[in-house]
Inverse folding.
């Protein structure tokens, strides 16, 4: 009996370690990010977790973005986009890791706790990842020696080229959503991503993220390291605003609506 207990205990530890490794934010390349997202999709499939909706779409977007990074002439600064992809992936993984102990950032917490339609889950994830994570991830890499040249004025054209990128890939996302969604539950035929609405939402989230990136960068340039508390104030202000927007929309999305604030957030 003692032997069985020890074996069970060791197996439990091994499984916990494997799960923690999946959520570890240590992505170092595009292929590394894609491989991890594939493993997470399989993990959420086995768990019959609704997180598979966002994760599988994120995998599809990451695969397509990697293709564009290595497509000659698509981006003016593909190395900056590559750095953004890796840091952006790590912020998603960090949110998953923090969620294991109930400490995910508030915008992500709303997404993780959503159990409405698959499109609801997906849109709330997009809100958290783009609005909350994107400006912070770009700001972070621009402060590193390797990507120090990836400042807003350098990446602006590539940043907004991403709006075109999302227009190009949106038509294929519904097929991906239905494919993975049926691993969890049968998706209602009417629960689809309306392409014009999705594109408008993504553009809105990305414009807000760009405005926040400019604010973060200008605050750093103005105050330097002495202004760290001011940076934290900006991040907290954005977190609070995005949390409010997500809470407002979590029920409205289920009803087929989505509210975009008239003058940013």
């Amino acid at each position: 009996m003692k032997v069985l207990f020890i074996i069970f205990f060791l197996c439990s530890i091994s499984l916990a370690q494997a799960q923690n490794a999946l959520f570890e934010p240590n992505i170092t390349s595009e292929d590394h990010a894609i491989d991890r997202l594939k493993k997470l999709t399989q993990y959420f499939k086995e768990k019959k977790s609704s997180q598979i909706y966002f994760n599988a779409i994120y995998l599809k977007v990451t695969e397509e973005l990697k293709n564009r990074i290595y497509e000659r002439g698509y981006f003016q600064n593909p190395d900056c986009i590559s750095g953004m992809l890796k840091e952006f992936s790590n912020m998603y993984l960090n949110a998953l890791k923090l969620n294991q102990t109930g400490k995910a950032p508030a915008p992500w917490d709303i997404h993780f706790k959503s159990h409405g339609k698959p499109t609801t889950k997906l849109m709330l994830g997009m809100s958290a990842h783009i609005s909350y994570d994107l400006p912070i991830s770009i700001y972070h890499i621009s402060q590193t020696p390797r990507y120090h040249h990836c400042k807003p004025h350098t990446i602006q054209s590539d940043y907004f080229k991403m709006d075109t990128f999302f227009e190009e890939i949106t038509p294929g996302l519904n097929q991906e959503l239905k494919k993975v969604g049926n691993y969890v539950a049968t998706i209602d035929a009417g629960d689809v991503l309306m392409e014009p609405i999705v594109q408008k939402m993504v553009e809105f989230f990305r414009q807000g993220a760009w405005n926040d990136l400019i604010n973060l960068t200008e605050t750093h340039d103005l105050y330097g390291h002495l202004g760290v508390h001011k940076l934290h104030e900006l991040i907290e202000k954005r977190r609070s605003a995005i949390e409010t927007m997500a809470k407002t929309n979590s029920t409205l999305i289920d009803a087929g609506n989505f509210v975009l604030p008239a003058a940013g957030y």
Summary: The radius of gyration is 19 Å. DSSP finds ten helices and no strands in the chain. The chain has a mean pLDDT of 80. The CA atoms of residues 76 and 158 lie 6 Å apart.
